[in-house]
């Protein structure tokens, strides 16, 4: 959903999602097969939503809001350096 609202950040968002899901395996909370199945189900759900007119109509204002914020040069208010460093550990 975040990629739909802010497609310019697609690579970073998908990398972060992948790192978060893999952390579930590393921490012993899920099996790799659980995470893989979640990715497949998530992809199927997003594909279905992309075919839905109501969803597309609701995403359009969110995308416009993100685009306007980016055009103004607005950045997240929180410092994510510690998070980025933690995600870089593999």
3D structure, described in words:
The longest helix has 19 residues, at 32-50. This protein has one domain (2-70). Helix content is 74%, strand content 0%. It is built from 5 helices and no strands. It has 90 residues and is an all-alpha fold.
The radius of gyration computed from the alpha-carbon positions, rounded to a whole number of angstroms, is 16 Å
Largest pleated sheet: none
Overall pLDDT confidence = 89
Low-confidence stretches: none
Strand content: under 5%
Counting structural domains, the number is 1
Structural class: mainly alpha
Q: What overall geometry do the principal axes of the alpha carbons give?
A: flat
Helix content: over 70%
Q: How far apart, in Å, are the first and last alpha carbons?
A: 26 Å
Instruction: Report the order of strands and helices.
Output: HHHHH
- SS summary, helix count: 5
Total strands: the figure is: 0
